[in-house]
Amino acid sequence: MGEFLASNEWQWRLLRTVVQGVLGVVVANLDLILGWCVLEPGVRALVVALVMAVLSPVMAEIGAHLPGDTNTGHGPGE
Q: What number of other Cβ atoms are within 10 A of residue 66's Cβ?
């Protein structure tokens, strides 16, 4: 999990990008998946944008606080 969230090797960056894309598609089509909620196209676009804007920082913060990780993910003095 630590490599997935924190590694800068190309394969881990690619996997993170794919996972974020899949989550974006799931959120965009939540009304089709659940079948009981209907989202207006404008609301759908807003929800997807919010999820994508929050997802990357949340993943970075989780990666920074994994057990055994000495890298805090913060710059000097923070």
A: 13
How would you write the pLDDT of the chain (78 residues) with one tens digit per residue? 778 777 778 888 899 888 888 888 888 888 788 877 777 888 888 888 888 888 878 887 887 887 765 454 544 444
Q: How far is CA 52 from CA 16, 36, 37, 59, in A?
A: 12, 23, 21, 11
Alpha-carbon gap, residue 48 to 46, rounded angstroms: 6
**Are the CB atoms for 31 and 38 separated by under 8 Å?**
yes
How would you write 11-26 as a 3-class SS string? HHHHHHHHHHHHHHHH
Q: Which residue shows structure tokens 């974020």? A: 20
